[in-house]
Amino acid sequence: QVQLVESGGGLVQAGGSLRLSCTASASIFSRNAMAWHRQAPGKQRELVARITKGGMTNYADSVKGRFTISRDNAKNTVYLQMNSLKPEDTAVYYCAVEDRLVVNLYNYWGQGTQVTVSS
Hints:
Layout: E1 4-7, E2 10-13, E3 18-24, H1 26-29, E4 34-39, E5 46-51, E6 57-59, E7 67-72, E8 77-82, E9 91-98, E10 106-109, E11 113-118
Parallel strand pairs: 2-11
Antiparallel strand pairs: 1-3, 3-8, 4-5, 4-9, 5-6, 7-8, 9-10, 9-11
């Protein structure tokens, strides 16, 4: 059973920072790419940032230069450092595990953590 446990969401003023964490089962963490997605009210879920098992990263255009994804394989944890937050970053953020064979196919999801940015 794959489990993903997220933490770090909350309420922050515009311009502030938050750091999200997601700890995964050891059996899958070291072999798979990981990603953060988000879903705002009334909108579709979107990919925010992705990191391969080797550490290569890619970001949505809307967060480039503000968000940083990283992973600590020793701790089976992936992070999302969010700086210069904007009200439009308000959403539920989900950690996900990518399929080993199919890029952008996510097989396992965390429960989500709410991020609210006030103006």
